[in-house]
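Contributing new complexes? Match this layout with pentane-1,5-diamine.
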Amino acid sequence: MKTALLSFTATLALTAAAQAQEVRVYNWSDYIDEDLLSKFEEETAIDLIYDVFDSNELLETKMLSGGSGYDVVVPTGTFLQRQIMAGAFQKLDKSKLPNLENMWSVISDRTAKYDPDNEYSINYMWGTTGIGVNVAKVQEALGPDAPIDSWDLVFKPENMEKLAECGVHFLDAPAEMIPAALKYIGEDPDSHDPEVIAKVEPVYAAVRPYIQKFHSSEYINALANGDICVAVGWSGDILQSRDRAAEAENGVEVAFNAPKEGAQMWFDQMAIPVDAPNVDAAHTFLNFIMDAQNAAAASNYVYYANGNKESQEFLNEDVIGDPAIYPSEDALNNLFTTTPFDPRVQRTVTRLWTKIKSGT
Ligand code: N2P
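Output block (do not edit by hand):
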């Protein structure tokens, strides 16, 4: 009798486990409208565990070592490409993704450079890496003609010396900050030549004393609160900062620019790790994200453009109509993309970045 009862209880527990589906998503911080997370759970009855990160390098370490436990992760295209080659992801089952038909070929053609035929990933958001400023404070430091739309603002030591007082943050993202400095000195931002890459070292050494912090998510609030006056950061994050300041009615005016010399354009891709525990639920999540209204809701909240054509009719005018989010043809031509370093060059870059940050 006792045995029978036990096995009955065990069967119940097993059935419950099979029914309570879950999906574990690992996305960038400040990258979704949380209402969408509860909407997903209500619509699908799948428990959503949602964690955040702010560094491709950190995500890559998890993907390459395996066993992350995540079902959906969001590397940037260049990192995705290297991780696909390392066998970190599984091919999507497109029969489970009917909303793929909503996607926008302008973007999927570009992301196919990292993921041929988009076999492993869908685009979540794309954007640029540029400069956010507290307009009043920067003009107070540098005068009304402060070059807020140029890399001169953050790479010219004489500007940085004056800005240091009101506070400058840089992204802790070598795969973006090194190309930016290469662009500033007129080199190919996608150079893989260690000798060319080494040229950014003196550029950083000259401004390093004036950089308060290398961090990839704190700047949103720091800029909005007036704690810093300049952040090299991601387009939508800086626009979120602008909104937070406006909401706080604290008199801080935040502006974003993709520097005129050229800025990096990147694509954040949702993919399913090869060892994902909940593959079906992962597809359900991807399909949910590719629903036109859901993709629009996400972009309307985070101020990043998405790769979903059908979402465009649901985008707010301050999103689809903002050239900092959906750039014009001309502006697009002024953006550059990069390709992943091979492991040897990557090691050089990692060392160089550690040295730059430590300032020694
Ligand atoms: C969201 C940052 C995502 C852009 N906070 C980095 N690829």
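Reviewers usually confirm one structural detail per submission. For this one: The chain is about 45% helix and 15% strand.
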